[in-house]
Design goal:
Strand content of chain A: under 5%
CATH architecture of chain A: Up-down Bundle
Largest sheet of chain A: none
Shape of chain B: globular
Radius of gyration of chain B: 23 Å
Distance between the termini of chain A: 40 Å
Distance between the termini of chain B: 25 Å
Oligomer: heterodimer
CATH topology of chain A: Four Helix Bundle (Hemerythrin (Met), subunit A)
CATH topology of chain B: Cytochrome C Oxidase, Chain A
Order of helices and strands of chain A: HHHHHHH
Structural class of chain A: mainly alpha
CATH superfamily of chain B: Cytochrome c oxidase-like, subunit I domain
Number of strands of chain B: 2
Structural class of chain B: mainly alpha
Strand content of chain B: under 5%
Order of helices and strands of chain B: HHHHHHHHHHHHHHHEHHE
Radius of gyration of chain A: 21 Å
Strand order of the largest sheet of chain B: 1-2
CATH superfamily of chain A: Cytochrome c oxidase, subunit III, four-helix bundle
CATH architecture of chain B: Up-down Bundle
CATH class of chain B: Mainly Alpha
Helix content of chain B: 55-70%
Chain lengths: 219, 533
């Protein structure tokens, strides 16, 4: 982690009039540390789901095998590529801002958000097709499936649904960041918010990297 | 110190808003801490009244004034309120917010806005918990543990209560995150890790548990909600699920949560004892590191809640072994507190009495925990009122008494006024007697076979239950006394000096109550926190 020049908290300037309000202090390293800790908690949140997946996969290996073949590997692969590229564009936007190229930063962030939307559209069609076949949590068809298959599809909806929710949150964060870059609040001397937004987006990507093989590829 | 200290303090001067709005929008850690305190004390009284209702019902065998269903709802809501709204945030959110930044020589936490945000998340969770009582088909009746498969089938408001627990967990995570970054980044110059006071140390260990354990229960509770809504079958055996899996996932968080409650309590006691014994704390590093050890090992003992639920023999003895290991750092702390008092010049003030009551209760709670933690004896007392007594000795006798100790210790710093010492001492005695009368008989009837969570019982348990109910009323009287004393003193108490106890940690070196920015100039630390001469 790199530390920005003006950040040392330990040398907070003496506050002249301490009776008015809190003076905002700046601590980029602290801000990034907070983000990393938050990312740990997110990983643990999904960690609970991975445990449940592992338990039931070992209990019902055959059902999981069969159920997994029902997923659309093409859309899954496409979405993986989309997320990987969007992770690249968000990383590039940080470099662009560091080099002082505000226009390119906004451009790259816009592309990232666009990728996020495409991901969600794909997800919509993928889920929609399953709904069309009456394969959704709580449906009558689901309850007639074998137990392992029911659990697989339930986990599929739960895990990808929670992940999609994280995509939406990530999108909102990136939109806020984009607006702040536009207004100049995030600039090439103060861009920890952009970095944190990028970190969050990488997390969303990382979780998908695990979901994709677990759900789509092990068949 | 004169009245002017109160005029210039964080009480009177806030942000650009005035009055109540100035409090509700304040990012000042002290104001947030006080708001937590008022909220938590209010919920404590609600939970306490529910507990009193239960005890009254149990005074005689048979049904008196609660139906079995109502009784189930009352103990569930008592548990949910006390655990998730009172003791888990408890010391960390109140006294951690109020004093941790000051004790490490900082002007605020690292993320003040996030701090205020966590408070509002806490309030949102509280509202959800309260809503669960009134809407739909009645208050939840699953017990605070929400064990599947009953929680997936019960017709009551389980979803609202579970979501409340989920939301409160989120608040807990954000507070923990904030404290970790604050302790890493904002310690005053010269304050190395081993020159940091021990209350912040305990909060640091606590914060890691909050951060690393809470997400697991978060996802588990979400799965439970999904299961109820969509008949998914994660935990319902009729649908291929596994109820034991729920218990594992639940206790992976909820056992470490007990350390979230007790570690800051130990931190408070570690502050109080050197101040009143006027002696350097014995074994500073051992106390600091034992907090971390408790946090680390405490993460791996959850299985001891499930000895009778169905686990492999290997898993059972491993969990039992680790449970005994975690007793070691706890005992280290007790020995160190006692050694600190040895040859000290002890001044017997109210906070010290509360701290002594803590140590006494905590030892009983801890040692009975070993009876529950060993495999053979556990079979005998599992799910009896012995467990209830043990748990309340740790959480109420431990964390609750530490909260009272902290309240009496830091009261003059918070309000700039002193309470009536004589009344405080008497309330401590009454509370201690009430507490012991209430919970000790539960050990005995538990050993004799009284199951927990039953609203009716065999006649042979009546004596124990009756004594216990008397204790509940004595306890209530004690709390009333404390309440009167402190509320009156907060407004009209004698104005006190900045350091009435002669403490050496940083919070005693600034005016009472503190100014908005805590320190005019950030202090430079050259020696350890407890260098009494």
């Amino acid at each position: 982690m790199r530390q920005q020049p003006k950040t040392s908290n330990q040398k907070l300037e003496t506050i002249m009039n301490h009776s008015i309000t809190h003076t905002e202090h700046r601590d980029d390293l602290g801000a990034k540390m907070g983000m990393w800790l938050f990312i740990f908690t997110e990983l643990l949140l999904f960690g609970g789901l991975f445990i449940v997946y592992a338990v039931y996969r070992s209990q019902y290996p055959d059902d999981f095998q069969i159920a997994a073949t029902q997923l659309n590997t093409f859309i899954g692969t496409l979405n993986t590529i989309i997320l990987l590229v969007s992770s690249m564009t968000v990383a590039m936007s940080i470099t662009a801002l560091q080099k002082g190229n505000k226009k390119l930063t906004i451009y790259l962030l816009g592309i990232t958000i666009l990728f996020a939307i495409i991901f969600l559209v794909n997800k919509y069609f993928e889920w929609g097709a399953k709904f069309h076949h009456h394969l959704y949590p709580g449906s009558e068809l689901m309850l007639t499936l074998k137990r392992g298959e029911l659990l697989f599809f339930s986990l599929y909806y739960f895990m990808t649904g929670l992940h999609a929710l994280h995509i939406v949150v990530g999108m909102v964060i990136l939109i806020v960041v984009l607006l702040k870059v536009k207004s100049g609040k995030i600039n090439n001397t103060d861009f920890v918010l952009l970095e944190n937004g990028g970190l969050y987006w990488h997390l969303v990507d990382l979780i998908w990297i695990f979901l994709f093989p677990l759900l789509y590829l092990i068949t | 110190m004169e009245y002017s200290a109160i005029e210039n303090s964080y009480f009177k001067i806030g942000n650009k808003h005035k009055g109540l709005l100035g409090w509700l929008t304040s990012t000042d850690h002290k104001r947030i801490g006080l708001m937590y305190m008022y909220a938590i004390i209010s919920f404590f009284f609600i939970g306490g009244i529910l507990g009193g209702v239960m005890r009254t019902e149990l005074a005689r065998p048979g049904q008196d004034f609660l139906s079995a269903q109502t009784y189930n709802a009352v103990f569930t809501v008592h548990g949910v309120i006390m655990i998730f709204l009172v003791v888990i945030p408890g010391l960390a959110a109140v006294f951690g917010n109020l004093f941790m930044p000051i004790m490490i020589g900082a002007r605020d936490v690292s993320f003040p806005k996030l701090n205020l945000f966590s408070f509002y998340i806490y309030m949102l969770g509280a509202v959800l918990a309260v809503i669960s009582l009134f809407i739909g088909k009645g208050a939840p009746d699953t017990g605070w543990t929400f064990y599947a498969p009953y929680s997936t089938q019960s017709g009551t408001n389980v979803i609202a209560a579970v979501l409340a627990a989920f939301v409160l967990g989120f608040s807990s995570i954000l507070t923990g995150l904030n404290f970790i970054v604050t302790i890493h980044r904002l310690r005053a110059p010269g304050m190395t890790w081993f020159k940091m006071p021990l209350f912040p140390w305990s909060l640091y260990a606590t914060a890691w548990i909050q951060l690393l354990a809470t997400p697991i229960v978060g996802i588990t509770l979400l799965m439970l909600v999904a299961e109820r809504l969509f008949k998914i079958g994660f935990f319902d055996p009729n649908l291929g699920g596994d109820p034991i899996l729920f218990q594992h996932l639940f206790w992976i968080y909820s056992h470490p949560a007990v350390y979230v409650m007790i570690l800051p309590a130990m931190g408070v006691i570690t502050e109080i004892i050197p101040t009143f014994a006027k002696r350097k704390v014995y074994g500073y590093k051992a106390i600091a590191l034992s907090s971390v050890a408790i946090a680390a090992v405490g993460y791996l003992v959850w299985g001891h809640h499930m000895y009778t639920a169905g686990m492999s023999g290997t898993a059972r003895w491993v969990f039992s072994f680790l449970t005994f290991i975690v007793a070691v750092p706890s005992a280290i702390k007790v020995f160190n507190w006692i050694s600190t008092m040895y040859k000290g010049s002890i001044s017997l003030e109210p906070p010290f009495y509360f701290a002594m009551a803590f140590i006494f209760n905590f030892m009983i709670g801890g040692l009975t925990g070993l009876i529950l933690g060993s495999l053979a004896t556990n079979i005998h007392v599992h799910d009896t009122s012995f467990v209830v007594a043990h748990f309340h000795y740790i959480v109420f006798g431990g964390m609750g008494f530490a909260f009272l100790a902290a309240l009496h210790y830091w009261f003059p710093k918070i309000y700039g006024r002193m309470y009536n010492h004589k009344m405080a001492n008497w309330s401590c005695v009454i509370i201690f007697i009430g507490f012991t009368t209430l919970y000790f008989p539960l050990f005995i009837i538990g050993l004799q076979g009284m199951p927990r969570r039953y609203f009716d019982y065999l006649p042979q348990f009546q004596t124990g239950h009756f004594i216990s109910t008397i204790g509940a009323f004595i306890l209530g009287l004690g709390f009333l006394l404390i309440f009167i004393n402190l509320v009156r003193s907060a407004k009209k108490g004698k104005i006190t000096t900045s350091n009435p106890w002669g403490g050496l940690t940083l919070e005693w070196q600034i005016p009472s109550p503190p100014t908005v920015e805590n320190f005019e100039e950030i202090p430079v630390i050259t020696e350890g926190p407890y260098e009494y001469k």
